[in-house]
């Protein structure tokens, strides 16, 4: 009997209490405490004391919290009885889910018998799924909890409501069912539950959901910072900024998070001045400003054209020197890079970028975008190559940057590199690449990208659809563009404008204005771009009266004040129609001084109709405004040459030389067998050039028999007629057409593109070519499209 005294003593309550107290003190000790925990556990084992459930549960809980899950699991699995202990199981479930091991957590959950489960146990599993944003799984556990008749408390509903908010799209009926469960449980008075209910309704797209959220809010007897924040953010998410402000103005207390939410809401709604005013009030009231405040207000300055205000905010940040660690400061520094680069201060942006201690991909993308928008392509390429990590946005920005800087071919090459590196392009990246195909006239490449879009499921994307529509139109296939438009599931104003522009550029003026009218009937209000496209369509088709009516309706019916670009379209419309006096009257009536686009339209009209006096005056204005623009000199030379004033042509040519102005060389290109072939005037470099010239000689004989006579007035040199004909015969568009006729399959349309406006003789020649070879020939020049077929052009010789 005496031999068992020590072992009996170890089973006494004081020993158990001693170890329980030690473990309790350890639980309140700041982490890490794993070494001390193992020492205590070793002492328990060495002493011979056999801990009971509450000690073992505490050990399992502490091992779980310290991250030593294997030790916790070994203790849990040590006895079969332990596997039925919901307290220990709860600790393990929480630890496994915190480490991202949801499957292991669920395994523990499933092995606990129903009789051992309690509210806390279910709450742990629901919370685990909620933290992992697995709404359906959390709701399923909640339903099991109801079926098992386990009582629900406030923690239950906070977890399941938060998880359900992640289920998208969220149906109003689902929200109402959960709301009813809350009311039945009697937990609706809990602030955390009410907050979760408001958040749930705020995520629901149904309009009535906002009413239910407001009702929950109004019934709350106690509100905290999260309550006000959730209500404000909910209204902001719906775009109802006035209701968000109403709730904000009712707020009790000065919660800086709610102020930040309100400023962010104003920024997202484009109300940048209001965001700045709220920032000013926040500062005056002494409400703490943090990185979220600064990020939002600097975004307002960057997006709202408020650069000077942005610099003032930057100066304020430097002056008060907030105690930001590198990670906290990063969003502010990133938006500062965007601010300065967006307004042309790319060198300042680069200095800020260089000073960022912990750059992320957002930092690099911001700097990359700044260089591309500033036209500093090489600097952008250097940044791109230096990036150790690139995301989809990086590639998209670089591809679009190449395109917008006139380097469409480089954009296509980069897209191909992206695919080779295994990066999956998003729909916006495809949109930029398809746009590059449109600029190059690479129709077959564009079709291949269209097929890829369908395979990837991007065909419903508006950005990709609009890019496809424009690409087909720019490649001369207006029928494919129209079919794309008709098949788009959700057309927006960009889609309508693109289709109207396509019809106008291809000479379908009546169809363009019919589509414009249909857009309005379908409830889409025209914007300033819509009017630019319809005015251009009227100009290309000679629909003067219709164009006037649309111009006058802008301000009268839609409150859109015409800009210089709209006036330029109107004057171009009048000039092409020979109504030069009316164009002059419009210029005199404008509320601003005419700029280059106005005088270019006047000069173009004077060239067409031979108005020497006004043409010279328009050219003189342009020489003052844009002296390096070669188009002015060329158009004026045409006016002089048309009346045989060769001495004046020579003077213009000398003026160009003296000013260092070089004429952009005309070039044409055509896609054959997925390869783009480029031709210059009098080309001798293309490998098939001799075959092309021989073919043109043979074709020229047929054309002359049909009545073709070279129009030598388009040669700006005072030389013999035979020489002029020789010069005309080597124009780049004729060479490209001949190459297409030689290399493309019989009967296939010939599509060529030219960087400049097609000359009158080439226009006439291609009309006769279309008859001589019985083929459709499509030419995209610098202004519009010409579809030549059966001796006719879609422009009706009105160009």
Describe the structure.
There is one protein chain. The chain is mostly helical. The protein contains 43 helices and six strands. A six-stranded mixed β-sheet has the order 2-1-3-4-5-6. Helix 43 (760-772) links the parallel strand 3 (750-754) and strand 4. Helix 13 packs antiparallel against helix 14 (225-237) and helix 20 (326-342) packs antiparallel against helix 21. The termini are far apart. 44% of the residues are buried. The model is unreliable at 1-10 and 716-720 (pLDDT under 50). InterPro entries: DYW_dom, E_motif, PPR_At4g14850-like_plant, PPR_rpt, TPR-like_helical_dom_sf. PPR repeats lie at residues 118-152, 224-254, 255-289, 360-390, 391-425, 492-526, 527-557. Residues 707-799 form the DYW domain. GO terms for molecular function: RNA binding; zinc ion binding. This is DYW domain-containing protein.
The unreliable regions are 1-10, 716-720
Cα end-to-end separation: 120 Å
Mean model confidence by pLDDT? 90
- Coarse structural class: mainly alpha
Biggest sheet descriptor: 6 strands, mixed
Number of contiguous helices: 43
User: Roughly how many Å is the radius of gyration?
Assistant: 37 Å
Shape category: elongated
The amount of beta strand, in percent, is: under 5%
**Helix content range:** 55-70%
Across the major sheet, the strand order is 2-1-3-4-5-6
The total count of strands amounts to 6
């Amino acid at each position: 009997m005496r031999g068992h005294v020590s072992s009996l003593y170890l089973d006494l309550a004081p020993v158990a209490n001693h170890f329980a107290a030690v473990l309790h003190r350890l639980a309140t000790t700041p982490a890490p405490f794993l070494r001390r925990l193992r020492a205590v556990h070793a002492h328990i084992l060495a002493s011979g004391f056999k801990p009971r459930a509450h000690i073992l549960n505490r050990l399992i809980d502490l091992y779980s919290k310290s991250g030593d899950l294997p030790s916790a699991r070994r203790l849990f699995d040590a006895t079969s009885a332990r596997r039925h202990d919901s307290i220990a199981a709860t600790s393990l479930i929480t630890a496994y889910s915190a480490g991202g091991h949801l499957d292991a957590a669920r395994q523990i959950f499933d092995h606990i018998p129903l009789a051992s489960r309690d509210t806390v146990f279910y709450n742990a599993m629901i919370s685990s799924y909620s933290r992992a944003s697995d709404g359906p799984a959390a709701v399923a556990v909640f339903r099991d909890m109801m079926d098992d008749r386990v009582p629900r408390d406030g923690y239950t509903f906070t977890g399941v409501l938060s998880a359900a908010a992640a289920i998208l799209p969220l149906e109003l009926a689902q929200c109402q069912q959960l709301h009813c469960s809350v009311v039945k449980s009697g937990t609706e008075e809990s602030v955390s539950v009410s907050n979760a209910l408001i958040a749930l309704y705020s995520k629901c797209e149904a309009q009535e959901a906002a009413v239910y959220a407001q009702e929950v809010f109004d019934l709350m007897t106690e509100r905290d910072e999260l309550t006000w924040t959730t209500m404000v953010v909910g209204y902001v998410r719906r775009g109802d900024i006035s209701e968000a402000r109403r709730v904000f103005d009712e707020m009790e207390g000065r919660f800086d998070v709610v102020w930040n939410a309100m400023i962010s809401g104003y920024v997202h709604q484009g109300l940048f001045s209001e965001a700045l005013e709220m920032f000013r009030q926040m500062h005056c009231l002494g409400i703490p400003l943090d990185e979220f405040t600064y990020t939002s207000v600097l975004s307002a300055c960057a997006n709202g054209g408020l650069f000077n205000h942005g610099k003032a905010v930057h100066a304020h940040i430097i002056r008060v020197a907030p105690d930001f660690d590198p990670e906290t400061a990063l969003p502010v520094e990133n938006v500062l890079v965007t601010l300065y680069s967006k307004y042309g201060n790319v060198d300042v942006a680069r200095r800020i970028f260089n000073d960022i201690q912990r750059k992320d991909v957002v930092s690099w993308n911001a700097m990359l975008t700044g260089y591309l928008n500033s036209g500093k392509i090489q600097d952008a390429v250097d940044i791109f190559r230096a990036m150790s990590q690139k995301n989809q946005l990086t590639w998209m920005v670089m591809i679009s940057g190449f395109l917008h800087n006139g380097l469409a071919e480089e954009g296509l090459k980069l897209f191909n590199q992206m695919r080779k590196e295994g990066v999956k392009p998003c729909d916006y990246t495809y949109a930029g690449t398809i746009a590059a195909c449109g600029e190059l006239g690479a129709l077959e490449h564009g079709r291949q990208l269209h097929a890829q879009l369908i395979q990837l499921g991007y065909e419903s994307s508006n950005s990709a659809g609009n890019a496809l529509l424009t690409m087909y139109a720019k490649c001369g296939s207006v029928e494919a563009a129209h079919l794309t438009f008709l098949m788009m599931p959700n057309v927006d104003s960009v889609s309508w404008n693109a289709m109207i522009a396509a019809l106008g550029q291809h000479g379908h003026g009546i169809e363009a204005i019919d589509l414009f009218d249909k857009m309005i009937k379908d409830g889409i209000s025209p914007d300033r771009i819509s009017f630019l496209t319809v005015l251009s369509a009227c100009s290309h088709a000679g629909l003067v009266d219709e164009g006037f009516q649309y111009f006058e309706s802008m301000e009268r019916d839609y409150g859109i004040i015409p800009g210089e670009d709209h006036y330029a379209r109107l004057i171009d419309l009048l000039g092409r129609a020979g109504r030069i006096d009316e164009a002059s009257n419009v210029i005199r009536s404008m509320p601003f001084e005419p700029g280059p686009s106005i005088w270019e339209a006047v000069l173009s009209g004077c060239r067409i109709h031979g108005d020497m006096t006004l043409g010279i005056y328009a050219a003189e204005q342009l020489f003052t405004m844009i002296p390096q623009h070669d188009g002015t000199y060329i158009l004026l030379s045409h006016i002089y040459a048309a009346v045989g004033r060769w001495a004046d042509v020579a003077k213009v040519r000398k003026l160009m030389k003296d000013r260092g102005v070089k004429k952009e060389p005309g070039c044409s290109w055509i896609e054959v067998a997925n390869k783009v072939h480029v031709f210059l005037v009098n080309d001798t470099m293309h490998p098939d050039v001799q075959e092309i010239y021989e073919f043109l000689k043979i074709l020229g004989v047929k054309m002359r028999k049909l009545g073709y006579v070279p129009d030598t007035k388009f040669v700006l040199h005072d030389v013999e007629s035979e020489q002029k004909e020789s010069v005309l015969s080597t124009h780049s568009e004729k060479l490209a057409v001949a190459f297409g006729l030689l290399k493309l399959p019989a009967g296939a349309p010939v599509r060529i593109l030219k960087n400049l406006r097609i000359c009158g003789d080439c226009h006439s020649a291609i009309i006769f070519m279309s008859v001589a070879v019985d083929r459709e020939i499509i030419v995209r020049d610098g202004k519009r499209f010409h579809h030549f077929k059966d001796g006719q052009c879609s422009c009706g010789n009105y160009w």
